[in-house]
# Entry
Amino acid sequence: MTERAEGLRNVIVSDSKLSHVDGEAGQLIYRGYPIEELAEKVSFEEAAYLLWHGYLPTKVDLQDLKASFRLTRPLEDPMKKVLRTLPKGAQPMSLLRTAVSAAGLLDQKADRANENVTLEVCERMTAKAASIVAAQWRLRIDEDIIEPHAKLDHAANFLYMLNGVEPTELQAKVFDVCLVLHMDHGFNASTFAGRVTASTLSDIYSSVTTAIGTLRGRLHGGANTAVMEMLQEIERPERAEAYVKDLLAKKQRVMGFGHAVYKVIDPRAVILRRLARELADSSGQTKWIDMCDTIENVMTQEKGICCNVDFYSGPVYHMLGIHSLLFTPIFAMSRIVGYTAHILEQYRNNKIIRPKCQYVGDVDRTFVPIKER
# Structure
């Protein structure tokens, strides 16, 4: 009998130069750089360039990438028509999945992507994803779509297109770091799903659509939404300790804790904890981070379980004025950089991904003619 691993746990299926996750040491590395250094020193655009090219951009390289984003960020009229046609009350991740698929129909180079995919396609998809997420939300709340700002970078532009107000320097910086932190994370379920599709030599839009559809699942994306719902239910910091202990007594899950890979604290959570405190002190919305502090202390003392990136990203997004329904689409619009980088890597050294399964059904059954059934 062939040895197997449920859910492919600890099975190495391919090599990658993009990111490394060390769950024992609590490390996340993009292209050789620890996430702590990148979060502190580079922008979203620089981190995207790093994943796509393998090295950090020069000033000219960065200017060229920002120019590409500015050029491709506006949505074409056909895409706006698609977004207006879709049910505005639909799940935002479903809208994003469908819109990315539609974008493949509007991109004349999409069908040739598997033969001669270029970074131009990756840049265009990344730029437009942010515009799509912002636009579909504006339509959902019966507001006009806001065109991109000509002078704002990627993170700040999204907040502007979403709310119609230029973010403060701190808000833009915090959101920029959030996007960097979510950009890639090894062979997670959605990234692997995208690579499976790419391995058939399907086009890059189909591959990314597959990945987004996988991220939509409640066991993958969406945990930060659940964290925010929990905090809103707790409502006040003084209620947090009793609330969590009650959940533990009932053997119910406390959202934002535990991780499939990390055995110690998620390094991204450490960064977001600090940023959440800065944002809370600046905005006066300290109750959210105060609740988080209490919950984290209880979970550490009672269960010895560390928090993950979702625990702090939820309240950070909330303090930035972002509705919880958009938390997972924001995850996706950042992770598209990682998806496309992985898809390119798959194309360059492709072998179709085709694992075996073990048949455990019936054998040697006697066929009964339809007249005798």
